[in-house]
Amino acid sequence: MANDSNKTDESSLPDITRLARDGRRADPDATVVMPPSAAADSDPTVVLARPPEPEPKPEDTTPLALPAGFRLFEYRVDKVLGQGGFGITYLASDVNLNSRVAIKEYLPEQFACRTEDISVAPRTVTDGDFFERGLESYLVEARTLATFRHPNIVKVARFFEAHNTAYMVLEYEHGESLKKWWPRHKAMSEIDLLGLLAPLLDGLAVVHEAGFLHRDIKPDNIYVRDADGSLVLLDFGAARQVTKARSEEDNFVTPGYGPIEQYVLAEQGPWTDVYALGATLYWMICGKRPQQAPDRMVFPDPMVPALEMGKGRYSLEFLAAIDWALKPETQDRPRDIAEFREALFAAHPSIGNLQEALRAGEKGGGRIGQMLLHPGTWPLAVKMTIALVLTALTPMLIVAYYNYTSSVARVSAAELRNLEQLSSSVSGRLGQLMADSSGLALFLSRDPEFAALLQKPTEASKAKVLATLKDVVTANPDVQVATILNADGKALVSSYPGVAGGNFGYRQYFLEGIRGRRYATSIIVGATAGEPGVFFANPVKDSAGKVIGVVTLRVKGSSISSILEAAREESDRSAMLVDADGIIVHHTDKSQLYKSLVTLPADKAGEIVYDQRFRREKIDTVNMPDLAAAVTGAKARGYVDYRSTISGKEEIAGFAPVPGNEWTVVMTESREVFEKPLRRVLVNVITSVLLVGLVFLVLAVWFARKIVRPIESLTAAAHALKSADYDKANVPVTSSDEIGQFMRVFNTMIDVLRQRERELAAGGRGKRR
Questions:
Q1: Which of 400, 452, 562, 608 has the fewest CB atoms within 10 Å, measured from its CB?
Q2: Is the pTM of this model over 0.70?
Q3: Which intervals of the chain are annotated as region Disordered (predicted)?
């Protein structure tokens, strides 16, 4: 849009003038909303289509505003402060804090109404989409305002959803809109007006620096506080992030205050809010808003420039800045608030300089910073005090820190040994459980009834074996299932309902057993019981020693877990059991089950998922390589320090392998647990040192002043001597130390100089005689 040939075609723009002048709109500055077209248009000069005129709405039988006394959580509605096209603002009281707040309720009266149960609903089915999009924008406004902390931006205390709509709780301040306030103060001088605007510009700059645009700045949305007359920016309902795609939202625009890019699918940025600020200032100096942007996209521009409208009352620089901000084409305007501020304050640079100076002062002051970086410029008393305090306290702090670190090391070593011994004890108990279960499976495999069943299955033999298996399960609470499989892997008899008749020939434990080997699995999640457990398999042989079947026992995973959890005794410790692949098959925190300590190779992870060992679609990882390197496949007990990604803390662990198995028992504990008492001791020691230091500081200041005061007296006396004021050049001697001796010598020197000056004066008089 750099020249006339590229100007926006006026015929492609909506008739916003008619919409703004529509008699149904009471406020001529009301924000107009234009929903985006269904399909994105590559031509950025095409305006999004305006929706068709709404059908007549039925008269509401329920009042639109909430009644006085209505409770919204801890807030009581007192009265209506204002009502606009998009919602209602109430004055309310926080009954808990006994304070007043303002509450904004999202209720677009053109598209929504209040039902008999107080909730808000779209007026018609066709209004539903607009209502939901507006509600989402309203929540965006609340979240946006909650991120800003500036005295000239309205503050959001909280926001919440209720009654099928949303509410925003704002800090309540007495005042009125700029639109109402300005007509009584329009005689204000330019310099006073700039002083009023400066903080508001700072606040808007904060909004832009956070990556947001306001997009609806106008006199109605600027508030003037009664307390100090300062301005506050309100109503961020049209706000959005600069990076947000334009096609994802409705276009909000107030005719006269919104620039052309808010009517068409064009890039928006800080220059968009600069235009609205310029339009607001134009209204303030002219008494009327500018012509709406679409009507100005012609040559010549029909708007009368501010330079003409405000000539004689305001400086040319001030008026030129407003005209610059109101340039129809985006590239012709100031790019940000800083550029606009510089032009706006050009006739009164002292105001801008004062603002800059105040901001610089808030940042800490460069001179103080430079002095801190150059100790040679510090006063002598300060340097002496610091030196004395550091000399006294540094050895105490070093000793305290040394004692603390030594104590932590000793306690840590003891705790590591305790965890190692505990892990070893637990691994022994688990090893015993596994050995007993393996022995039981071996005993069953040698039962002649089992061989007879496998050689000649009959209902009678099945009944005998079933009774034996049930007796085994009843007598051994750790055993969950006992099954006998034939040479094909088919379950002939099982103590667990539903297992008999199933084929388990693909299972690893069966394949090992049918080859004549005793076998025990790691913990796996069974397909039938759906619970973790360990399978033991033993071959069953006939009288000739030929393998004719397999006996399997399934030991409950809960029995293994109970041994591990009993060892930690409900303390702050955690118990882990890690298998040969580095997968956590038991953890005190059940959400960590079946995760690997480090990322597994793709083939190994695929094998585990395919085998459905743990009934997981993938194997996640906790990513603790230090712990994994120490415990996975460990052959001897030990301990390790590592950082836990589960707790996010530094932890220690003792570990021990389970005899006869490829598991490793791991007992972990956060360093905070056993270091906490020592830290309390350290805090007490530091507190004592600081108290001693405070006493010593007072003594050091007193001592430093005793040293410096004579030097200050000598400095003052030297200045007096420079002015030949010998009476003031003498210094009082208050001590007999080296400084006192120096002061006596100095006084003697003053007396000698005084005497010589008298002699010179007397000699001069004698010559004149």
A1: 562
A2: no
A3: 1-63
